[in-house]
Amino acid sequence: MSPGSDLRDEVVASLEAEWDQIGSAGSFLTGEERLELVRRARDPGHQLSGGLGAVAEDAVDRIARDPALIDAAWVDGLEAAGLDRLRYVEILSVVSRAVAMDTFAVAAGLSLRPLLTATPGEPSGDVASDAKQRSGFVPAVGAVGPASAVSALPGEAAAWDRLHCVLYLSMDQMMDFAGGRELTRPQLEFVAARTSFHNDCFF
Amino acid sequence: MLRGSAAQTDTRLELRGVIHLDVDPLLEAGSELRAFVDAALSGTGDLDASRAALEAVVGGDGAVRAAAVMGNFQMMNRLVDGAGVRVPKAMTEIADDLGIDRPPAH
Questions:
Q1: Within an 8 Å CB–CB cutoff, is residue B44 touching chain A?
Q2: Lower Cβ count inside 10 Å, N or C end of chain B?
Q3: Per residue in B6-48, pLDDT tens?
Q4: Nearest chain B Cα to A11, which residue?
């Protein structure tokens, strides 16, 4: 990457806070457990330590490498094997965000950010009181949609919103079709569309 | 969002160029953006070379933004698939413009 990109340094600095969040306790998983998920997402040969187990490995592998194959039966199977849907939401959130940040690093010509020591602390147990499973595979606040996929867990929802703003656009900016960021809006959306094509994701 | 933003900004765009490599997207830097995404996500081609080619047309910060947007949609694709977000019927119609089969709609 060319040496003169202030934006690159700005994005990298913003992502530091997001890596710290991943390495800190969430609603159900400790910081170390969350970092373990990222280790598995980066290396399918990495066996998860602690209490996570094979069902969590299956979840990480599918989310990280074959998300288009996720269907209701598979999520039901995770639950039957002992991974409840809210823990699944936390895994989905952590792995999705880690893949996002790793993709940025690779594409920008940077090294993957090393996973350092987890921040000590116990899971909060925080769940949105109005989260319910209506459609889709997981509980959500309101109807499950792109902006509410992890809304059942307030910490994950806030982290999603921050990362979405850093990497792409804020929700307000999204409504301005004429506005861009370093690229024109159509150019931003073209990248989004080609990326989604690679993931076999029509949405 | 792509079709809408191109229409609102009066930008030349051939939607089938999102999917089909033999179609010129007509969008300024579209071919370079496509090659950059492909190199980063599928290992097709030389990532460093495609990044340099993109920087030459959109500048260093433009290429960084492309990398960032790529990351964001890696996240979004996983979230919508993982949470079972359904594609609204109205959205499936764009498949015709893209030159692909319509997905199941809800």
A1: no
A2: C
A3: 888 888 898 899 999 999 999 999 999 999 999 999 987 899 9
A4: B68
Residues A141 and A153: beta-carbon distance below 8 Å:
no
Say if residues B70 and B37 touch (Cβ distance below 8 Å). yes
Residue A181 three-state SS: strand
**Cβ(A89)–Cβ(A57) under 8 Å?**
no
Classified as helix, coil or strand, A124 is coil
For A92, residues 6+ apart whose C-beta sits below 8 A from its C-beta are: A59, A63, A138, A149, A150, B78, B79, B82, B83
Contact flag B40-A160 (C-beta cutoff 8 Å): no
In the chain, the amino acid numbered A130 is: D
pLDDT in the model for residue B101: 65
Chain A: nearest CA to B51, how far in angstroms? 7
Q: Is B35 part of the contact surface with chain A (CB cutoff 8 Å)?
A: no
Place of tokens 């990326």: A195
In angstroms, the Cα distances linking B1 to A49, A77, B37, B51 are: 41, 34, 18, 24
